[in-house]
């Protein structure tokens, strides 16, 4: 792959306009006025003399790198190594000689090669070792060329050494800048690939062998296992980081993704019991979390995601906590059919819903306690800390308002489901039907 292919993108980084550039302060510049090009400077003439020796310099650099066992020099094609060294050396010397440079910016070449080497998987330290060898060799050759001319020229080179080393240092920084930009781009591309694969799973494409195979490699998820999906209400201040901190290390494998107002997690439980997971997640105070039931393959992640979202919706507005789908199946029926649930509530409770809030709440609480006590007025009275007759009087009031006897088994079942609806959905008028919303 030729470095010129990188020039356009790297030029944007050099100018500080690329998205990968961290901030304007990170932009690298060589001396803008080229102080080495003054009338009294000896450096341009020395650099021009070295340009004519470029082929020999490149071979010496290759031998130096090979002798130091620089890893990527031994692994990459020799022609590629020579081309990169030639462009580095000539770019540096042309700048010192006050001659035109590629792309009007001498830093374009080292940044492009840093970018390219990162894409090849070359270690940064290996790349910098070659640069240090080149720096050492070029300075020695400048020194030798000056000494061969006269002691005066040598002294003037030493006097001007500061700017020369500044240029060499800028080249080193440019190499690193190009390398880091490639790393950042790779991380972003990897994150985008992971997000796309995660979305494919929760959208039902885990049934595709190719998607399942990539999930094993990219997300580290097995094709079969004990999976649950966790949905966290991000709008309510929820964060998977808090939940992840509650999970003991290596107990549960988790992959997370932010989608709109949700933090979604696909968890492989390993040997962890689901109730234990819910207990750990409940340690994150102040969050709204829905947990699906278990599924045993990536092909079922979409179903688990639906269960987790449904479980989250069973938490009343403003309430916090962890809702496990398998523990809230009745509530799940309610939230998945809110129109039917509210219609059932109206039919079961009738005029009871028209009472003042204080009386309505007392009657509903009494009825709930009665059902939870096995329809025993005495046991319900103990729960409510009141007299048995008080419970009976309230139940008669309920029958009067609803127009149905609580001895009717079917009416009892309707009332029990209506109580679930009341405790799950807000007590408002029934929502419009789908046809009315169209």
TrEMBL record:
Coiled coil: none annotated. Residues 363-420 form the PucR C-terminal helix-turn-helix domain. InterPro entries: CdaR-like_regulators, CdaR_GGDEF, PucR_C-HTH_dom, PucR_C-HTH_sf, RsbRD_N_dom. It comes from the Bacteria. Residues 55-194 form the RsbT co-antagonist protein RsbRD N-terminal domain. Residues 208-313 form the CdaR GGDEF-like domain. PANTHER family: CARBOHYDRATE DIACID REGULATOR, DNA-BINDING TRANSCRIPTIONAL ACTIVATOR ADER. Belongs to the CdaR family. This is Helix-turn-helix domain-containing protein. It comes from Streptomyces silvisoli.
